[in-house]
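Working notes for the structural subgroup meeting. M.R. asked for a predicted model of this chain before we commit to crystallization trials. I am recording the input and output together here so anyone reviewing the notebook later can reproduce the run.

Input as submitted:
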Amino acid sequence: MRKWGVFFIFFALACGKEMNDESSMIPDPHSYANSGQCVVTHLDWRATVDFTTKQISATATWTIHRKEGNEVVLDAKSLKIDSIFLDNGKPAVFSLEGDDPILGQALRIRLEPETKTISIRYRTTPGAEALQWLMPEQTAGRQHPFLFTQSQAILARTWIPCQDSPGVRFTYTAEVTVPSNLLALMSASNPIEKNESGIYTFEMKQPVPSYLLALTVGDIAFRPVSDRSGVYAEPVTLEAAAWEFADLEKMIAAAEELYGPYLWERYDVIVLPPSFPFGGMENPRLTFVTPTLLAGDRSLTSVIAHELAHSWSGNLVTNKTWNDFWLNEGFTVYFETRIMEKLYGREHSEMLAVLNLHDLETDMREISSGPHPDDTKLKLDLQGRNPDDAATDVAYNKGYFLLRTLEEKYGREKFDAFLRDYFSTYAFSVMDTETFIDVFKTYYREHFNINVEDALFTSWIYSRGLPADFTPPSSDRFAKVEDAARNALEGQDITAATKGWTTQEWLHFLNMLPDTLTQAQLQTLDRLGRFTESGNAEIFSAWSLIAVRNNYSPIREPLRRFLINTGRRKFLTPIYTELAKTPEGRAFAEEVYRAARPNYHFVSTSTIDKVLSFDPPGL
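Returned structure, recorded in token form:
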């Protein structure tokens, strides 16, 4: 590394730590925490997981750093607090205040002058939105129950009382007791096999925000991929998962070559049961992924590249609040695309970029016609709203295209140098949009004598939609796909042209089809691509939208099975939305949803309930 770059890193590292301390003074609209006055720094968690009662009983002992004041405020939601003790063993004076449907309650704990730790004995309740308790029949093996958590964005407070803000980082240790025939794993150091006691210990040495707390318990086995990476899954799924993700080590090496060392020691992946609501979740050291990635041809592994990239963008440098979510996801999509380019070539990564643009434009059209058109900006104002509203393609793909524009405008070599220093400088700290703009402009001025105009950031970050001068990506292979799509619609046989197509080419083909198709056209297309019987979740879900829109009856039963057995919100939301547009479709959707809803995580049901105006049982 250049001497100038080394000097910059050490100088800015000090500035970064100072920025991180100051950032805690800025309130997070989605947390009650008083981290500007008293902040948690370490968690020692002792827990017992009971599948009979579907409850976690635990003691959370927090080490605190007090700057001022005589209380610490934590976030809690749907928790039963039994008792709280200060480090001298004295019972603490505490109160639970408020009951906001999104934020939950403020847990206020009175401190004494010398208090260093607080110990909270508590239990989870059926309202714990982060927890997904699965019966044996809801798992791949169908023999044992399963539990997993999903803490992002602000669901950690439903299973651990904490300062549930991305701006607060802490280390943690844990001891978790589970049934002896099951294995427990966390976003920390992990075992690789079961023991007879059912007691497992964990340590996370690197400070993490609460949304990266994760736990899973089940009949789980392990297969190594390299000395520092491997795959966990239910035994019946393990072989397929290990084959699908055989390139893990290659991805880690490619990422390190791009933007510096991997700082989390191990990178493992666990394939969860189908109810997991996301493609993946970047829990440190243990990425959670959906089984819908197991396409059998390694064609959907860009999701793994995405979650791995989060080890730098998001986990290492974290958005200060959820209003700055694009700083996590836009950077990660950019990094993911660079990893895929490095491993599989520029043409492959450009196909991904074109598909990203299609998803972005689709999402922005829907947002623009909805109640919050300003959500097509990158910098958001989510005061009074669920921070999960930030999880749109705008944060992911508009953020990506901004960074791609910066790379193309000023040169890839310069942008790569900036990103390497950015990740090193602000490692284990937080970032907001305004600070990022200042950091970027300062770096380019001091390193390259380039003055970056504010207008560029204004048009991308603080304005709706895409800038008028945006240059979209293109793909030579996709140009051939577009020709094939036109020929198919004219009645030509394109079987030879589609030979050897990748998943990405088939997806682009489906994206090119018009909204309205005849039944004869649908049948011809289905014979061509065998879409209705496809085992590739990406292809099937894209085809199902076309089939539903055009009332193609052969899709009905395969779609029923798909919706009941798939919990990934990315697929569920557009399908249920399309079904709800007609009386017949809505009736089918409501019938299926009643059967499928118990299989879905809260993250998914909270969205689909709104799509179908569904009143959950008991409400």
